[in-house]
Design goal:
By secondary structure, the protein is mainly alpha-helical. The chain has helices at 2-16, 18-28, 54-65, 74-98, 109-151, 159-170, 179-203, 208-238, 257-266, 282-291, 295-302, and strands spanning 37-40, 47-51, 279-280.
Length: 304
């Protein structure tokens, strides 16, 4: 019963927050239909170009597709979330039985710490990676369904037609587009969070009440570091899909995920979509630095 309530709560949160996730996916794919404006940085007071925040982006989607249009791609996204959660929970419980963490009185403190970290992290990485492998096809379908907003296609209308379309165009490999960077990012995230939080709780914090917040804080910090893997994975989910979102002029074709990473790094966009409010516009910033035109001309463009 507790599991059912947990899954229902997760599905509810996914449903309520879907418009935010939907807008974020479109931003990650590089679709920017709203005109940027000039604003000053908080600390340096230097003028930079910023796109409107994510809530204005959501307003743009609603204006074009209506209120229900904000939930485009919800069904495959819900399916992905439920499958991933179920597999993670089931496999984690089984791995805990097979590989329990036992106390070792004779070993040194450092050896015990490293052993506990290794066992716990290995269990989590295995469970999460297997869960991602099982649920990733639904992630591909969800992102491609959302990406249809850009080119107004109807190739991915539901899960069943999407499965048929992906297999027809790309074969079985199409269901796992973008899988590798997602797995790498997840594994690195788990390792860093566990190591840093365990280190802090073991040697820096004595109060049990504060120890419960360590993992949350580490999760937030580490997710900023590994975000590029999330971005590259989602871009590769639509790569070679036949959608306008994955074709010039919206997006170039990438040979593989490393090619995508290299290109994004070159253009300064490895963190594209990571912020909901201060969404910098690297392309206009680079143009401004290269040619240094009068600011008034940019303001005229921004108010067009």
């Amino acid at each position: 019963m507790a599991n059912v309530i947990s899954y229902a709560a997760g599905a509810f949160i996914t449903t309520i927050s879907h418009p935010l996730g939907y807008a974020k996916v479109l931003i990650q794919l590089g679709h920017e239909p709203l005109i940027p404006s000039l604003s000053k940085e908080l600390l340096t007071r230097k003028e930079r170009w910023y796109y409107p925040n994510i809530f204005k982006y959501i307003g743009h989607i609603k204006k074009r597709d209506g209120f229900l249009g904000l939930w485009r791609g919800l069904v495959p996204q819900l399916t992905e979330s439920l499958v991933r959660t179920y597999v993670t929970h089931t496999l984690t419980e089984e791995l805990k039985k097979q590989f329990p963490i036992e106390e070792e009185e004779k070993s040194s403190e450092l050896v015990v710490f490293l052993r506990h970290f290794g066992i716990k992290t290995s269990r989590e990485v295995t469970a999460k990676c297997v869960a991602i492998f099982c649920s990733h096809p639904f992630q591909v379908i969800a992102i491609r369904t959302m990406a249809q907003f850009i080119g107004e296609e109807t190739m991915y209308n539901n899960i069943f037609s999407s499965i048929s379309e992906i297999y027809r165009i790309e074969g079985f490999s199409g269901f796992y587009a973008g899988l590798v960077p997602r797995l790498i990012g997840e594994a690195i995230t788990i390792c860093l969070i566990n190591f840093i939080s365990d280190l802090i709780n073991e040697y820096l914090i004595d109060d049990k009440e504060y120890k419960s917040y360590t993992t949350v804080a580490c999760n937030f910090a580490v997710s900023q570091i590994t975000y590029p893997f999330v971005l590259v994975s989602r871009i590769m989910c639509v790569n070679n899909s036949g959608l306008a979102a994955a074709s010039p002029p919206y997006m170039i074709y990438y040979a593989d995920w490393r090619d995508c990473w290299t290109n994004l790094k070159k253009t300064g966009e490895l963190n594209r979509g990571s912020s909901m409010f201060w969404r910098a516009c690297p392309s206009l910033d680079r143009h401004n630095q290269m040619y240094n035109p009068p600011i008034d001309s940019y303001r005229k463009y921004a108010s067009f």
